[in-house]
Hints:
Layout: H1 5-12, E1 18-22, H2 28-41, E2 49-53, H3 56-72, H4 76-81, E3 86-89, H5 90-100, H6 102-105, E4 112-113, H7 116-137, H8 140-149, H9 155-168, H10 174-185, H11 188-213, H12 219-233, H13 238-243, H14 257-276, H15 282-290, H16 293-317, E5 319-320, H17 322-335, H18 337-346, E6 349-352, H19 360-369, E7 374-378, H20 392-403, E8 409-413, E9 415-416, H21 421-434, H22 444-448, E10 451-452, E11 470-474, H23 482-500, E12 503-506, E13 511-514, E14 520-524, H24 530-539, E15 544-546, E16 549-551, H25 557-572, H26 578-589, H27 597-605, H28 613-622, H29 630-640, H30 643-646, H31 653-670, H32 677-689, E17 695-697, E18 706-710, H33 711-714, E19 719-724, E20 741-743, E21 747-749, E22 752-754, E23 756-758, H34 761-786, E24 789-798, H35 814-817, H36 823-829, H37 831-834, E25 838-841, E26 877-880, E27 893-896, H38 898-916, H39 927-937, E28 946-957, E29 960-971, E30 975-982, H40 989-1006, E31 1009-1016, E32 1021-1025
Parallel strand pairs: 1-7, 1-8, 2-3, 2-6, 4-5, 6-7, 9-10, 11-24, 11-25, 14-18, 14-19, 15-18, 19-24, 30-31
Antiparallel strand pairs: 12-13, 16-17, 20-21, 22-23, 26-27, 28-29, 29-30, 31-32
Amino acid sequence: MAWTNEQKEAIYTEGTNIIVSAGAGSGKTAVLTERVLEKVKKGISVDNLLILTFTKMAAKEMKERIGDKLKKEGLTSELAKLDTADITTFDAYALSVVKKYHYYLNVSKAINIIDGSVITLYKRKILKDIFEELYEENNHEFIDFIQEYCIKDDKDIFEFILNINSKLDLKTNKREYLDNYINTVYDEVKIDNDIDNYIKVILKLISNINDYLEYIDDDDYLAKLYDVLSPLLSAKSYDDIKSNISIKLPILRGASDITREYRDKIKSTIDEIKKLTTYDSYDDIKRGILSTKGNAKVIIDIIKKLDDITYNYKVKYNSYEYSDISALAIKLVRDNKEIREEIKNNLNEILIDEYQDTNDVQEEFISYISNNNVYMVGDIKQSIYRFRNANPYIFKNKYDTYSNNIGGIKIDLNKNFRSREEVINNINLLFDRIMDNDIGGADYSLSHRMIYGNLMYKGDGDNKEDNNFSVYNYLNDTTFKNNEVEAFIIADDIKNKINSGYRAFGKDTNGVRKIKYSDFAILLDSSKSFDLYKKILEYNGIPTSIVKSVNLTDGEVVLVIKNIISFIIKINDNKIDNEFKKLFISIGRSFLFNTDDNVLFDYFLNNNFKDSDIYKISYNITKRLDTISLEEIIDLIVDNFDFYNKLFLLGDYNANILRIQKLKEITNSLINLDYDIYDYQKYLDDIISNNLKLEYSVNDNSTDTVKIMTIHASKGLEFGVCYYGELYNRFNNSDAISKYSYDNKYGIILPYKDKFLYNTIYHNLSYRDYVMENISERIRLFYVALTRAKEKMIFILPSNTKEDNKSIGDIIDNSIRGKYNSFASIMYSLESITKDYYKNIDINDINLSKDYNMISNNNYKEHLKLINDKIEVNTTCILSSIKENKTFSKKDIHIITKEEEDKLLYGRLIHELFECTDFNNLDNLSDNNKKIIERFLEKVDISHANIYKEYEFIYDEDNTTYHGIIDLMLEYQDNIKIIDYKLKNINDDAYIKQLNGYKDYIEKLFNKKTSIYLYSITLNTLEEIK
């Protein structure tokens, strides 16, 4: 292979720490394996190299690549060492270190890794016990804490504490952190510094206003602006800012576009400042923070107790989480110089692949065992695993300091050997303008632009096609949803390309050939619409496969196994009760037997259920319970009930096979915890009832099919033509708007109570950081998506109704990028430079049809929940509510009729429909439910609103506690709309009083104009209450 000069530098440079910034398609894996080969050829054994990857699959592939190179070079002695060489994941290496030096830690060498689901369930159980104990003790601090934050139940606080504990598990000094938390976080000097930093955020916004004023080209209007803005512009303290923020900008008439643009920016910035200055004074800010101290202490005490009990459980069974192993490994090398030096002296070099995905714990461990000999390969532009605790700024900080030859050197691999020149130029065109150090984490135009490198696309490799990207722009004025329209557009385009003999370069032919279905990929941000896309493509005759992860407990398989185990226990305990009958009928109805209900009921009517295959097979297994392991019990169930043959009835065979395999792996790990069949049955019941997500990737064995996958799943892959759909889906910031949260920078973030519950400045600071980090990661995710394409990129994009296509310079302004809320918003901001690539699609020319729903969905049963219990409904019931003025609710108490009860049930179901539906995605709704929601959405504009459903509040005033739940609240930039749903009657004085109570509270809390509406679902009317 002919190496470029940059690749040679990355292969041969030695003697210091090296960071290699390897862009997409730059051959980083080839470079890394070649470097290992060169090391071995110089006499350095693979035993003296530590090569770390981030997945087991990547480690396996790395080992195979290095093995192929060693074999080709005839280095057989080193090839023999490869199986035991440290080419592995960080977790596996940390575990090997702990096992090797276990006696330093007073743990057994036979240490086990506990399955995450087991320890999650155990923590939930223990936390529940702790809560119950505190309730029984009538612990005043805990009771006050619960009363302050909880209304109906303590579920949110319970989940919050579990979530904090999970995040704190990533700290190797967790106990020390907790012990010092109160003194550190509530130190008044520290709080003053935090408030000063908060004020600096506001002052930066004020400074932005000053900058915007320079673009106002109307002198008279500029003078008027200065008149009203001068007091704010000169403010330096919080109290001064608060006093001068009530600003009404002068009316603008007949001004230029540039003046209007920057006047709007000034107004938007003032609104942002208003949101940050809801506190009465500096002292009010500080008082609010300090008032959360007692509640923070309650949380910390609970977490400490949970931690102690959990750790004792782990010690008892010598079974630990990987986070524990990491902490133990760090403790070993930090506290024992001889171990640290032994490891250092044995390692010629530490090579780390995908370094942009490193987390703080891994970085700390490496710092102890390295000796100016770390070789890091990665690409910050592809850091997309923040949800797995990756910290891209570890890479960025190294890259920046090494660029100045401080601590090491940096090498850039920017030549792309994957894509055609047009694709690379297109990507550069976009990312030059949307990614920089501030937003995205990399100065793209300065150091990260891709360079075309694959000359095979030239000459005979020229496909004679238009390889520049296309934006298929459509206006949807039909009854079809956008995702349906987009799937049909893509299907139509694929058919046209296949039928017209569109040409692409194929590795299989090493030249240009006709395009195949396997050359196409559809990349989406989430998997919600996968089945819809697959149906529509297959309706159009296009073979399609979905690349996805499967959740262990989805579908029937694990549920049926759990029911069989429960049934076996009933037989073993000789309990022929109602539960026994339910289990028998459930198993009989399942895909294993598909027995008619009449036949199943006859078994009990005739008392001959013991003659059934269900009973006989189960009974034979009970006879062996005392002599076989849990894993062997599962094997017997799977074999004797003929699972493998009958799984075909469910469809998605590979996914269900994987579920059984993974369940057996988990089952095997439970043996170390002394689980018997009763414990195991409870474990299965708990993972199902708690809806634990245990996800695994399914291998895609399909050949010539169009692939549908998420962008995350596409990382590391490449395709000829990539379609990007559902770009309009909004980025998810829901984690940032929680009432309670934890932030590595700001700690435990709690609201404080002063009549109402108010957010502290830490909510605002954390939210701002979160949103900007999320936008940065979404831009990086967009980069990953685009760099999968070899031949062509095709974006499917709804028409931009705003039509505010302003010209842009070298980089899009932060004020615009800081408000990106979807991939579509990114594309819209680039319209002025991408319009030439737009192709307007007339959807009347696309054969849209609802007949695609006739395509069989083999996975439909995975979306159904089995219900074995009969629902009994009493015909008469008492409906009552407490008649007290302290609740914002309509008062009523009477005996209701069956007709009234039916209406109430329908009303509750409709409320649940509105509460549970994602207004931006109605795909999973039935046609009738979809119409109900669509009728409502025609009445309201949700496109630029923060949406709050079932918004619950409580506050004290005049010795009375007020409580209410708002059906729907829409928060816009400068106002709030409250909407209450009613079936029919919206002219009831009680409802109006209720809504006015809501309005008074929300206006005080948000400091925004608030309007209230009643929506009649039956009449489809929305009426504003004045």
